């Protein structure tokens, strides 16, 4: 997410290096040039110079160097820049770890304190935070969080969550992340044929402030380009995942991705509710069975008492057109519209699992792929259905699956 072509598209981070001694500035400039990320454009100025020192647009970051003969001059410069209405991010670079000076630079308005000689890891981390914040500002808006749940096991929540994420990526070229909150099952990693080294547990330390670098390190990239935040490797570690950790993680993810798809599994608990409260869409899955519809009614009753702001919507999964229980009967019993129908296609789903490939590689023209792409398109359009001509083709494809 933070390097390579994506970083190049964001443009270089403009850094103004402010210091009295040219030799010291040159040394720091060489250290900055050695940083792997982000891409930097480094300019120089003296603390007593007028203007921003770059003859053009203002800097994103100003690094003020301390350690010369007169600390008052850089302190005054720091204070003046912090007072600007459109101020840059201010770094103070200190030659020694003197507590008194650290307090003075922070009171003068420094946002970050780094020490000389620059530590590559600390400098990279600090600058990437600025780069991410600028990118989110320029991008504007927020990503959409979609949670999927069903209190009936075996209904296909993980299958739908994974394939919805893939549909958004393959057919609409969206930035997509998938989060596995089915903490005891951990099925998303299995379905996507991934073996994550790190999981959501790595984001649960309350002593560490969550940032985009930590989040990226905890995720695993799928060959399609979607990112997975996996469930814990050990069942007992699921107890370490709190609603607070889930809330802060989703708040950050929605700033970095167009869509965040959350597999909430079948359990209703504080962790699941933390996801629902941050979701634009909460999809409850049913199939054409009396038990799943009855469970959905019980869920609606409980949900109404929980007073969560989002309204649940229903996806009818494994739909067969010739089934004795029709989609109209399901709609009538729930007294709720069906948001989307996903046709049953066990054969191709088995091919996906045994072939370690995704559905778009195994059966790109299948009714099942059309079903997920229809769902993705409706989600991206804000809930509007596709044009009638396409839905007619879609219906005929689903009917074909039902007859087979």
Describe this structure in words.
This protein has helices at residues 4-10, 22-33, 72-82, 99-108, 120-139, 157-172, 187-191, 212-218, 243-256, 270-276, 290-306, 327-334, 346-355, 359-362, 367-380, 388-403, and strands spanning 13-18, 40-45, 61-65, 89-94, 112-115, 144-149, 176-180, 220-221, 227-229, 259-263, 281-286, 312-319, 338-343. With 404 residues, the protein is an alpha/beta fold. The chain folds into two domains: 4-139, Rossmann fold (3-Layer(aba) Sandwich), CATH 3.40.50; 144-403, P-loop containing nucleotide triphosphate hydrolases (Rossmann fold, 3-Layer(aba) Sandwich), CATH 3.40.50. The strands form two sheets. An eight-stranded mixed sheet has the order 8-9-7-10-6-11-12-13, sandwiched between helices. Strands 2-1-3-4-5 form a five-stranded parallel sheet, with helices on both faces. Strand 11 (281-286), helix 11 and strand 12 (312-319) form a beta-alpha-beta unit. It is elongated, with a radius of gyration of 26 Å.
Tell me briefly what this model is.
This protein has 16 helices and 13 strands. With 404 residues, the protein is α/β, with parallel strands linked by helices.
Task: Describe the secondary structure blueprint for this structure.
Blueprint: H1 4-10, E1 13-18, H2 22-33, E2 40-45, E3 61-65, H3 72-82, E4 89-94, H4 99-108, E5 112-115, H5 120-139, E6 144-149, H6 157-172, E7 176-180, H7 187-191, H8 212-218, E8 220-221, E9 227-229, H9 243-256, E10 259-263, H10 270-276, E11 281-286, H11 290-306, E12 312-319, H12 327-334, E13 338-343, H13 346-355, H14 359-362, H15 367-380, H16 388-403
Parallel strand pairs: 1-2, 1-3, 3-4, 4-5, 6-10, 6-11, 7-9, 7-10, 11-12, 12-13
Antiparallel strand pairs: 8-9
Helix pairs in contact: 3-4, 6-15, 9-10, 15-16
């Amino acid at each position: 997410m933070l390097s390579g072509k994506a970083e190049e598209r964001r443009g270089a981070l403009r850094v103004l290096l402010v210091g009295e001694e040219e030799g010291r500035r040159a040394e720091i400039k060489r250290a900055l040039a050695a940083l792997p990320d982000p891409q930097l454009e480094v300019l120089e100025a003296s603390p007593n110079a007028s203007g921003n020192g770059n003859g053009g647009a203002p800097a994103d970051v100003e690094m003020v160097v301390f350690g010369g003969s007169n600390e008052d001059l850089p302190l005054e410069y720091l204070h003046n820049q912090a007072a600007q209405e459109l101020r840059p991010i201010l770094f103070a670079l200190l030659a020694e770890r003197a507590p008194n000076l650290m307090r003075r630079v922070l009171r003068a308005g420094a946002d970050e304190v780094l020490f000389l000689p620059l530590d590559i890891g600390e400098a990279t981390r600090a600058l990437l935070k600025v780069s991410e914040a600028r990118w989110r500002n320029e991008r504007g808006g927020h990503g959409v969080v979609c949670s999927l749940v069903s209190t009936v096991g075996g209904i296909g929540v993980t299958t739908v969550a994974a394939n919805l994420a893939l549909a958004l990526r393959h057919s609409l070229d969206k930035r997509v992340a998938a989060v596995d909150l089915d903490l005891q099952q951990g099925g998303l990693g299995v379905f996507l044929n991934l073996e994550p080294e790190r999981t959501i547990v790595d984001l649960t330390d309350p002593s560490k402030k969550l940032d985009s670098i930590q989040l990226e390190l905890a995720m695993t990239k799928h060959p399609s380009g979607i990112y997975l935040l996996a469930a814990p490797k050990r069942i007992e570690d699921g107890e370490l995942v709190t609603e607070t950790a889930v809330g802060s993680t989703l708040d950050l993810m929605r700033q970095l991705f167009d869509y965040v798809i959350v597999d909430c599994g079948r359990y209703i608990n504080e962790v699941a509710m933390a996801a629902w409260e941050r979701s634009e869409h909460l999809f409850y899955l049913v199939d054409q069975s009396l038990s799943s519809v009855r469970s959905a009614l019980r869920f609606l009753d409980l949900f109404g008492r929980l007073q969560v702001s989002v309204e649940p919507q229903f996806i009818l999964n494994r739909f067969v057109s010739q089934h004795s229980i029709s989609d109209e009967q399901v709609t009538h019993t729930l007294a709720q519209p069906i948001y989307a129908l996903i046709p049953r296609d066990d054969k191709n789903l088995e091919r996906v699992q045994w072939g370690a490939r995704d559905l778009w590689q195994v059966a790109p023209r299948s009714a099942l792929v059309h079903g997920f792409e229809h769902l993705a398109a409706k989600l991206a359009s804000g809930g509007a259905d596709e044009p009638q001509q396409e839905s007619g083709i879609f219906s005929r494809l689903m009917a074909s699956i039902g007859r087979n």
